[in-house]
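From the methods appendix. Each design record in this collection lists the tokenized structure first, followed by the designed amino acid sequence. Records were kept in a plain field format so they could be parsed without special tools. The example shown here is representative of the layout used throughout.

RECORD:
FOLD TOKENS (407 positions):
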């Protein structure tokens, strides 16, 4: 696959949702829809038969010689975080198109090949990540998704309806394990391990699981000029103490690979002359081992109630999601390692702190994840960058892996 095609298409897709700082293409937004239409055209031009399922996943397919054989699948996502980069998810989509184009030219394989553009992989809009692959693997329901609404109060049901999708038909998107032989995703690392080890390919053994909560702090809005310091119930002061407590608790477990972040915070009414009456925060805790995440969450709950007491402000914690780390398939790990050795590409086995659709697909089939370096580990940031050489090596390994699985 000529590199210029990939570099051009990365730039082209980055135009959808490009804003003053980076790319903002939130799940099911107009920019996301435009990017999906564009990629669907690329997939058709590459000879893939296209269908879209009831959660909006786009599935491109090349038939094999054995109509009954299970599909060998690759895929990733097009949606981004706010002010994100050009490579997160996109490398796996364009890499998948490149791989399937190459394999189509080589001639039919036994198993059909599929490329899936998953809906809503980023958790920003609804607090739940990888919605498309969750639905496809039966890991969520219309009942759960029907309760979701975004920060502007738009419900998930409404959003699907606007795209001509009916939340009550989500069950039709669920794939049976026997339909898929294996799933392999190509993605940028979004960390510095590969760069530090001077390796080109990371072969993932386990994917960290996020536990996500909404923390609501209730104080009393008051006049900032007339309310004495000892008569305040300042929600933002309590929230600040909670954020510091999260940081401290996560640091204590850092040696076990735990990370804790409060990445979003809303202050109400948000006026400089009003003591904040209400704060809403989003908490993201991750780790490779479930017990340390649970321990973290418990300690955060204790800290939150202690702060609420001391500051005389009410606090509520809503669990948005709490997953277990996903182990990926050992045979796939060995297959990919053998291909790296064959192609003379430096690789290492590692874990992924970032969540991916592969972790959901691991619930119904053998799942693999191939990572390539991104410069200084920068990601979820306009400066995200992966070199054409590393992207090409990732595609070469992905192509050969799909070939070995489907031949
Ligand atoms: O949040 C994540 O781990 C990824 O960006 N979906
Ligand atoms: Mn991401
Ligand atoms: Mn991603
Ligand atoms: Mn992903």
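DESIGN:
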């Amino acid at each position: 696959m000529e590199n210029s095609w990939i570099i051009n298409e990365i730039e082209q897709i980055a135009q959808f949702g490009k804003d003053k700082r980076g790319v903002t293409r939130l799940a099911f937004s107009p920019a996301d829809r435009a990017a999906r239409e564009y990629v669907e055209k690329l997939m058709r031009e590459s000879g893939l038969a296209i269908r879209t399922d009831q959660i909006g996943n786009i599935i491109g397919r090349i038939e094999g010689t054995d109509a009954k054989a299970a599909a060998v699948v690759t895929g990733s996502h097009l949606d981004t975080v706010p002010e994100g980069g050009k490579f997160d998810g996109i490398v796996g989509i364009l890499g998948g198109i490149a791989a399937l184009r190459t394999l189509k030219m080589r001639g039919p394989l036994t198993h059909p090949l599929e490329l899936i553009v998953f809906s809503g992989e980023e958790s920003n809009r609804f607090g739940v990540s990888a919605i498309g692959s969750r639905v496809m693997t039966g890991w969520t329901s219309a009942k759960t998704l029907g309760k979701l609404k975004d920060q502007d109060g738009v419900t998930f049901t409404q959003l699907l309806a606007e795209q001509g999708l009916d939340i009550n038909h989500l069950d039709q998107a669920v794939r049976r394990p026997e339909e898929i032989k294996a799933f392999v995703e190509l993605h940028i690392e979004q960390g510095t391990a590969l760069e530090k080890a001077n390796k080109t390919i990371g072969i993932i053994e386990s994917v960290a699981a996020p536990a996500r909560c909404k923390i609501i702090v209730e104080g009393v809005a008051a006049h900032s000029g007339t309310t004495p310091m000892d008569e305040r119930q300042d929600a933002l002061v309590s929230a600040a103490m909670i954020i510091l407590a999260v940081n401290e608790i996560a640091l204590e477990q850092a040696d076990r690979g735990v990370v804790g972040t409060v990445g979003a915070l809303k202050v109400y009414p948000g006026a400089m002359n009003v003591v904040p009456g209400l704060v809403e925060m989003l908490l993201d805790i991750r780790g490779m081992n479930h017990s340390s995440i649970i321990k973290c969450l418990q300690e955060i709950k204790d800290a939150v109630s202690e702060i609420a007491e001391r500051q005389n402000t009410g606090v509520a914690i809503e669990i948005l999601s709490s997953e277990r780390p996903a182990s990926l398939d050992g045979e796939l790990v060995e297959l990919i390692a053998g291909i790296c050795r064959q192609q003379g590409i430096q690789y290492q086995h590692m874990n992924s702190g970032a969540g991916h659709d592969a972790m959901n697909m691991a619930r119904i089939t053998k799942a693999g994840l191939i990572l390539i370096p991104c410069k200084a580990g920068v990601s979820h940031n306009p400066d995200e960058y992966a070199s054409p050489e590393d992207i090409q090596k990732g595609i070469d390994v992905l192509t050969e892996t799909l070939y070995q699985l489907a031949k």
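APPENDIX NOTE: The chain has two domains: 2-208+325-406, 209-322.
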